[in-house]
Amino acid sequence: MSASAPFLPPAVRPALPWSWGATDAERAASWPCDGVLSEPDEALVRAVEVAAPAPVLFRWLCQLRVGPYSYDWIDNGFRRSPRRLTPGLEALAPGQRFCRIFELISFVPGGSVTLRITDPGARRLFGEVAITYAAEPAAAGRSRLLAKLLVRYPRRGAARAMRWVLPWGDLVMMRKQLLTLRQLAEGRG
User: Fold this and answer.
1) What is the CATH number of the domain that holds 114?
2) What is the pLDDT of residue 1?
3) Residue 3: band (very low, low, confident or very high) from pLDDT cuts 50, 70, 90
4) Residue 153 half-sphere exposure, CB side, CA atoms within 13 Å?
5) pLDDT in tens, 35-78
6) Which of 73, 132, 134, 164 measures 20 to 30 Å from 92, CA to CA?
7) pLDDT at residue 87 above 50?
């Protein structure tokens, strides 16, 4: 690849554990995280339909600043992620912390947040990770909650096993996260 050629992220495989709930178009789409990591090893996409408008769903994505909304006993020190919207969290600025181990790189107001792993311990374990979460409008009053991860795996030590463990582990954790955010956006929290 020449120095001036744009980098293309790896294609998302259409089967578990690389893709869950995503359409062919969502897997093939260009995402804000696509330019964050140079030469990622893997791309993963997750998606779920939500019976709430995209602006409501986006507001719940902003809540990732204060909790992971997956299995709190695993990744939030047994602290429950808030079940009510926290005023002010929608005031986004690059550099803010998300889910304890990520930093906000960029955002589209009302649409998406793009994060990069910055916690040193998490980077050693998982490698370089960039994620875009998006709230996309769908049919009347509905939306799609989408997430794309790009991963450049650790190159040394036992952490190299992440290339086999991370896609399945992320599927379990992010499935729970997306389903919890859907439930809360739909007012069923």
Assistant:
1) 3.30.530.20
2) 28
3) very low
4) 16
5) 999 899 999 999 999 999 999 999 999 999 999 898 877 775 67
6) 73
7) yes
Which residues are CB-neighbours of 185 under 8 A, at least 6 positions away?
50, 52, 56, 57, 59, 60, 143, 145
Q: Which helix (H) or strand (E) holds 49?
A: strand 42-50
Q: Are strands 19-20 and 42-50 parallel, antiparallel or unpaired?
A: parallel
Hey, CA dihedral for 54, 59, 62, 63, is it positive or negative?
negative
CA dihedral 121, 122, 123, 126 (to 10 degrees): 130
**Cis link prior to 167 (omega < 30° from 0)?**
no
Spatial CA neighbour of 147 closest among 99, 118, 108, 112: 112
Contacts of 157 (CB under 8 A, 6+ apart): none
Q: Which domain range does residue 132 map to?
A: 21-185
26-36 residues labelled b (16+ CB within 10 A) or e (exposed):
bbebebbbbbb
7 lies in a domain?
A: no
Q: Residue 103 in contact with residue 93, Cβ under 8 Å? A: no
Alpha carbon distance 99, 21 (integer Å): 22
Q: Which pLDDT score, from 0 to 100, does residue 77 have?
A: 63
Number of structural domains found in the chain: 1
